[in-house]
Please model this.
Amino acid sequence: MAAGSTIRFDSAEPGDRVLQPGEYAVGEAPLRMRTLLGSCVSITLWHPARRVGAMSHFLLAARSPSRLGVPDARYGEEALALMLRQLHKRGIAPAECEAKIFGGGNMFPEQASPATPNVGRRNGEAARDLLTAHGIRVHSESLFGNGHRQMIFDLATGDVWVRQVNPESASMPLEGGA
Model:
């Protein structure tokens, strides 16, 4: 991206990889990855020297032990394992990566109960715990709060741009096709 360029959240640039819920991707510069997060969480991992990165978009922290099967990126612990496996195939160790965490928004703040943490909070806390368990340092995060986030991850620089939209101000129409 050229100096002085404006980040556009409303439309993908040619060559951008858009992650849907339950997906993950691994790639290298000049690829940019983007997604839209509500209560879901995205972990980004970036190797600064190789300019290789990975990004997840998971829906829940973990699945029920009674439902184990083929690894599924809809669950945080499995999404991270899938990303780490792909990075390992490229010769990248987890501790060499810079991690960032995003999302975990409360999409229904009017229904919040102080006694029970919402799904977004559980997802964000799980992401922190998973990265700590793998010895991966979290460089930055944008977690929790109300509403959704749009994000763009640039594998050339490791930069992540985030825009958070509160539910009250989210009445603008969505652009783009299916």
In short: Helices lie at 76-89, 119-133. DSSP finds two helices and nine strands in the chain. The chain has a mean pLDDT of 87. The longest strand covers residues 41-47.
